[in-house]
Every structure is written in structure tokens, then in C-alpha cells.
């Protein structure tokens, strides 16, 4: 028998979250962002739920091929554009739209021999300073693209660094408006945080929004808002079972480095999940976990294949945890109790994005 750990992907929640993103950006078309293998969920597993999207956005050409292989004939956008000249042949063959963020990509287009003119999203660096043309160089880049017979249509995009926080989007939005003023073409600026927090402004939501983390049921601005507060449902559950129960006395320690010491009698459960499953090793004593649907805490250090949890709150709730009892690391327990991935991420000093993306290959995945 395999280890009892498994992940479940909730199709209905994926579809509901897509609807939620749409409600926040009415009239805009929605890119379902499925980079990083759909934030660790698996492109093939999310595809049906996201068929209602207007397009799929991703980074990797192999992932674009997988979306086409699933039968998707609508738009696919390469968010970082092409990485080398021959990628343009695949763009033509698979009808991929692609971001253009640097001169080298324009050079490749200019040298590209194609039957099929390309649809591109010119990217403005509005202040994040990762990818894109600076405001000073944006319009000349546009003019250069516009003169190419290889280019059919030019849209405009930028990416916000602070849509989730107090800095907000005002300065970057202003830079985008100035740089793109009077230029024809569709516009796309919003990620999930901007969709939820700023897309009530019709200008900001533009023609296309790019919904990522919200589709996967995590709040981009946790803890200011929770996923439930945004009406987003968890799309991934990581669950396992107890392998053993230990009865500690005052002074007894748990796990590597003896980082946790009991100050009185304490019952501890040992669960079959560790950092080799994608559970964060930085999760420390106090990280929330559900046992038999009852909220309790991790104690001691996360090891490769096991974690240890405090069973006292579970007994106190009237359950009798033992070998085989269900343990929910994040997501939805069998009885319906929810442990938001964002709370686990916060306790481990990271974000829900990283936990989803890190789900390990050895964990079997089911769908419901
Ligand atoms: C990943 C990504 C998104 C989606 O971001 P979320 O915060 O997950 O919504 C949007 N736009 C670009 C360019 C991205 O790379």
C-alpha cells in the first residue's frame, strides 16, 4: 500500500473562482494564468474548469503545447514572450500570442520569416523593473513593432508590483496611461490582486485581466483579506493520515534538534507528510493543521517524511485520534472544515503560491 498522503484538486472550486474573478472585472476578458503547471495543480487537471476563460496565459512553450494538445483553440499568451528566434516558428504554428519586453525580441521578429503575422503584447516597465521597456523607450518600441509586416496587432501590458499592498497601483497606472496614450490596441494590466482590489475602475481593468492566484483559491493580499473574505474557495487539499501516537511527559522532546519540549503530559500524532512532499520545512511549532477536522498545531521540526502534531485539542473536541486518522495540511477536511493555505504559508514565512507550486511529484493527485 502506498503512503496515505494525497492531494485533491477541486474542479468546482476552480470554476467558481474563475467566475469570481469575472465578477470583479465585468466586461473584461480573462486570461487564466496557468504558468508553473497551473500553480502546481497540473494544466491537464485545471483545463476543464477553466474552459470558460477567454484565454490561457503561461510562460513555457512546452506548457503552451500541452494546452493546444487539450484541444484549446482560443488565445494563448506567452507572458515573457519568446526566448530564442526559433520559438517564433512555434508561435506561428500554434497561434501563440506573445509579450515583447526587449529589443532583442523585436530583432527576432524583424528577422522572422512567417506566413502568419503575430499578435503581440508590448510590455511597459512601469516601475517594477523586471521586464519591459521604460516609459522613455516605450513609444519607439511600439513604432518599431508597428512597422513590421511580421506583426499583426499590438496590445499593451504592464505588471504591478504593489497591487496587493498599501503602495497600490497609482504611480504605475499613471505611467502606463502616459506611455500608451493615443496608441491603438488592447490593454491588460491587472493580476489577481489588482482584479480584486482595483478593477472596479473600468480603465484599470482594461480589455484583458490576468487572473492567477485568485483562481487557485488563495488571497493575494492575505492577511488583509482572507480567501473566504474574497469569496474564493480552496482548490487544492493536501491530506494524509496518522502513523503513530506518542504520549509525552513533561520535559520530553519531539523531532530533530529537540526543538519542542513538552511542559506537561501531551499526546502527539505523527503524520505521513514531510518536506519531500512539498510541505514547508520552515513551518514551526504553532503552524495550523487539522486532525479529524479539528484545528490544532504542528509541534517540533518538519522532517523529510513526517510531521508531528499536538493531539490535545482533538481529544478535547471529542474525537479519538489514532493510527489512520485524517490529517489535513491545507484545504478541506472530509467533514468540510477548511484550513486556508494562506494561514499555513504565513506560519512558514511564505505565500500560498509557493506551497501550491512546491507540491512534490511523489504525492498522488486526485480530482473531484
Ligand atoms: C503570474 C502573472 C500574473 C498572475 O499573477 P497572480 O498574482 O497570480 O494573479 C499576471 N501577469 C503576469 C505578467 C504574470 O507573470
Can you give keywords for this protein?
368 residues; alpha/beta; 2 domains; nine-stranded mixed β-sheet
Structure description:
By secondary structure, the chain is of the alpha/beta class. The chain folds into two domains: 12-215, Alanine racemase (TIM Barrel); 236-367, Lyase, Ornithine Decarboxylase, Chain A, domain 1 (Beta Barrel), CATH 2.40.37. Helix content is 27%, strand content 24%. It contains 13 helices and 19 strands. Strand 17 (326-332) and strand 18 (338-339) form a beta hairpin. Helix 7 runs parallel beside helix 8. The chain is elongated. The structure holds pyridoxal-5'-phosphate. Pyridoxal-5'-phosphate is lined by residues 33, 35, 79, 159, 191-193, 210-213, 220.
Secondary-structure topology with pairs:
Blueprint: E1 6-9, H1 11-24, E2 29-33, H2 35-39, H3 43-46, E3 55-58, H4 61-69, E4 76-78, H5 87-94, E5 97-100, H6 103-111, E6 118-124, H7 135-146, E7 151-158, H8 170-180, E8 187-190, H9 192-198, H10 202-205, E9 208-211, E10 236-248, E11 253-254, E12 260-261, E13 266-271, E14 288-291, E15 294-297, E16 307-310, H11 312-316, E17 326-332, E18 338-339, H12 341-347, H13 352-357, E19 365-367
Parallel strand pairs: 1-19, 2-3, 2-9, 3-4, 4-5, 5-6, 6-7, 7-8, 8-9
Antiparallel strand pairs: 1-10, 10-13, 10-17, 11-12, 13-16, 14-15, 14-17, 17-18
Helix pairs in contact: 7-8
The protein binds pyridoxal-5'-phosphate.
Pyridoxal-5'-phosphate binds at residues 33, 35, 79, 159, 191-193, 210-213, 220.
The low-confidence parts are: none
The value of Rg in angstroms is 23 Å
Largest sheet: 9 strands, mixed
End-to-end separation:
22 Å
CATH class of the largest domain: Alpha Beta
Domain count: the total is 2
Number of strands: 19
**What percent of residues adopt helix (DSSP H or I)?**
25-40%
How many helical elements?
Answer: 13
- CATH homologous superfamily of the largest domain, by name? Alanine racemase
> What is the approximate shape?
elongated
Q: Averaged pLDDT, please?
A: 97
Reported by name, the CATH topology of the largest domain is: TIM Barrel
User: Strand fraction band?
Assistant: 15-25%
Global structural class:
alpha/beta
The hetero molecules present are: pyridoxal-5'-phosphate
CATH A-level architecture of the largest domain: Alpha-Beta Barrel
